[in-house]
């Protein structure tokens, strides 16, 4: 099937995860994008001129103010 082959080519992390039963007993458990805090500012300021506005995004499951692994 061409569609299932196309779906398998999707980049890992490019779509939200299924968060059913991922937040223990907390409801609602929803997928959310998380931007990690910029912890190495002094290293990036002295590095090869990298853009400080670049952050990696990751998907997590969230319930209230708590985050869970998908």
Automatic annotation (TrEMBL):
GO terms for biological process: guard cell differentiation. Keywords: Developmental protein, Disulfide bond, Secreted, Signal. InterPro entries: EPFL (IPR039455). The keyword Plastid does not apply. One of its GO terms (cellular component) is extracellular region. It is found in: Secreted. Belongs to the plant cysteine rich small secretory peptide family. Epidermal patterning factor subfamily. Controls stomatal patterning. This is Epidermal patterning factor-like protein. The lineage of its organism: Eukaryota, Viridiplantae, Streptophyta, Embryophyta, Tracheophyta.
